[in-house]
Amino acid sequence: MSPSRRTVLASAAAGLAATAAAGQARAAAPAEGNGEGPEVFGHLPDGTEVHRWTLSRGGTRLKVLSYGGIVQSLELPDRDGEYVNVSLGFGTLAPYLTATTYFGALIGRYGNRIAEGRFTLDGTAYQLPVNDGPNSLHGGDRGFDKRLWDVTPNGRSGLTLRRTSPDGEMGYPGTLEVRVDYTLTRDGDFRIDYEATTDAPTPLNLTNHTYFNLGGEGTGSIEDHRLEIAAARYTPVGETLIPTGELARVQGTPFDFRRGKNVGRDIRESHQQLLYGQGYDHNFVLDKGITGAPRHAATLHDPGSGRLMRVDTTEPGVQFYSGNFLDATLTGPGGRVYRQGDGLCLETQHFPDSPNQPHFPTTVLRPGETYRSTTVHSFGTR
Ligand code: BGC
């Protein structure tokens, strides 16, 4: 299943040569390095500049904003060497400031939902902002996705993003020092390393919220993408998408992606869980559990373009969200309107609502401990 990057790159070069000969316009393979950044992408309402950094290596080109640590663009070649942006987003800063889709963003302090925004930690009750029906989602109404990060280049093709989340921010306890490294490896893999420390116990569940469409953003539905998820169980939810606490078997349900199937194959079944989520919006319990090094979680393939992405993680879960709430109110950088199912997320994470579900793996970070989490996206074609 692992894509052979060398083969991919060779065929990409051949594809470019063939195209040039045929005289058609196509995006060129990116020049390597991180020397292109930063450029000014826009300004916050108070006038602060937001920068955009560009990384290129191993046939992958990544554009990252200092606002929200947002992956604003991820360009990959198809099987003929044609580069397109496979991540949903916006061409300007303004819509990122107000949208609640979390396109490409870093999510914290707590990726996913906490029931009624409440939890008790060491005997103290905390109330978080409620921003998704009765629940708190993705760190509250101004989570890490809506903050400016301090970005510095790191090595040949990497960025280090840092921020201090003050005690009490969005209701969470403790001053949290967060560091996220975005790296393009020699093979063009996109690696994300998260690290954090705190001066008081706090729940923490960091992730990245990129929406993928391997055919290119704005090209339509991801229902024909083939998805494999290495999970025999998932966490079913109630109607506000809080886990019931059960770790249910996927076998014999629309949630069985173990052998790979098209995203759209079962999405219209009248299964109660699909009705609650308006599609897939569920945490899959990865068979491998929590691991010291990233291990296989999911593989996504677009048969049309041939583009393939494999996701490996140290996390025990992945939220597969099939872009159900995209409702034709937002327009991507290519000028196309996003409709339901035009992109999908594979958010590596601990399980939703863990602070209220004692039998889920703990998400509490304590002083003296270091939070570490890694997710690697590797790309190829087939
Ligand atoms: C959640 C969805 C939500 C989306 C964007 C996902 O992580 O699971 O329910 O609509 O983020 O807000």
UniProtKB/TrEMBL annotation:
It comes from the Bacteria. Its EC number is 5.1.3.3. Residues 1-27 form the signal peptide. InterPro entries: Ald1_epimerase_CS, Aldose_1-epimerase, Aldose_1/G6P_1-epimerase, Gal_mutarotase_sf_dom, Galactose_mutarotase-like, GH-type_carb-bd, TAT_signal. One of its GO terms (molecular function) is isomerase activity. Pathway: Carbohydrate metabolism; hexose metabolism. The keyword Isomerase applies. The keyword Hydrolase does not apply. Keywords: Carbohydrate metabolism, Isomerase, Signal. It catalyses: alpha-D-glucose = beta-D-glucose. Coiled coil: none annotated. Belongs to the aldose epimerase family. This is Aldose 1-epimerase.
